[in-house]
Amino acid sequence: MKGKWVCACLIGTLCLLPIRISVPFNHHDVHVDVSGIEQDLNQNLTLELAEKGVMNGVPIQLGDLYIEDVLAEWGEASETHNKDGSYYAAYPSKHMSIGYNRAGVFELRSLHPDVQKLSTAMVLAEFGAPAEVRKTKQQMMYIYRAGKNELTILFDQNTDRALYQAVYSSELKERGEYYLQIQGDSAALTESARSGMEKSRKEMETFIQQFPLSLSSNGPNRKQVALTFDEGPDKTVTAKILDILEHYQVQGNFFFLGSQAAAYPQIVQKAYHEGHLIASLSFDEVNLPVLTDAQMRMQIARTAEEIESIIGEAPAIFRPPNGELNEKLMAIVSDARMHTVLWSLDTLDWSVHTAEEITGNVKRNVRNGDIILMHSHSGQEKTAEALPKVLDYLLGEGYEMVRIDEMLGVDAYED
User: Fold this and answer.
1) The one catalytic residue among 230, 346, 370, 405
2) Selected catalytic residue, list 81, 276, 339, 375
3) Residues 375-397: pLDDT tens digits?
4) Active-site residue 84, yes or no?
């Protein structure tokens, strides 16, 4: 969905935020006189519905990661406007505009003719005084709090008529627009390995931009990080990492190979019962994009089935080994209703010679919302050795260690 947004009232609205003047609401600002008004407030949106993030007749809700649901129901949008990593998709025949980004749908905006008959007096009579009023020379927005969401109504000040009403989540909008480029370095890399790493990162970043709703690489701009451990489990390194996480009382995220999970089910159970996220790699350590579609599906399905047989739940979060992706793989993962997660900070723990290099890498590069890549397979003793120092630093800097499902607001396991 590409194209230019040409609806004048919506462009005006997007311009509202950078130049807005927020003022406290004063009952004397507007004279409320509803005598003779027969038009009831449009019932597409109420405070109760706004709190749930929904509108009557709209097939998604705020935070729904699948804008494809709207496409399946309504078809392609007539126009889509891109601004700062967020998108507004226009459906004039539905009198709707959908705001979404990589964090999901953050705004449902109704431009129904009945809405555009509303005056400030009618809205005040229905909802009372707004929590906040924002003004420009031409427009005025009433904002009502609805749990974590907002019910917003934008008025043309010259006509005292609504331009639209909407349910909106500033948290989701800000989360989706916060994007971190992949960081992490290692002096131990050969020139050839460094060139390959840079090429791989560019390819991953292309996919992150291409699939903003079904692929994530970092969380929101909060003082938190997600520690992720790939290619386990094994009976030594993974066990040590679990003991360290238990000692520090923090949560980790384990992307297990299906074949390794089958070999060490007790380690998988231990990680799950201690509250860590169990997510999925492939069954074997393979480059998935070079396989046939059937082979890719088998690798993903077999891993999910193996993990489910051990912990009783099938993972809904997936990571391709080494971050290798192509469009066919993304389609297969989407069909499996799994969310793909890469990383934004690579410790390169597989390449370094000492635990101090891993710790230094994290110290130099960590940012709010980082998803940190490490490994927990046999042979990665340096990772287990570095982990206490990494945790001491992160905790000392005020970072919270969280699970990916909590960080991104996605399902950990299939329903």
Assistant:
1) 230
2) 375
3) 999 999 999 999 999 999 999 99
4) no
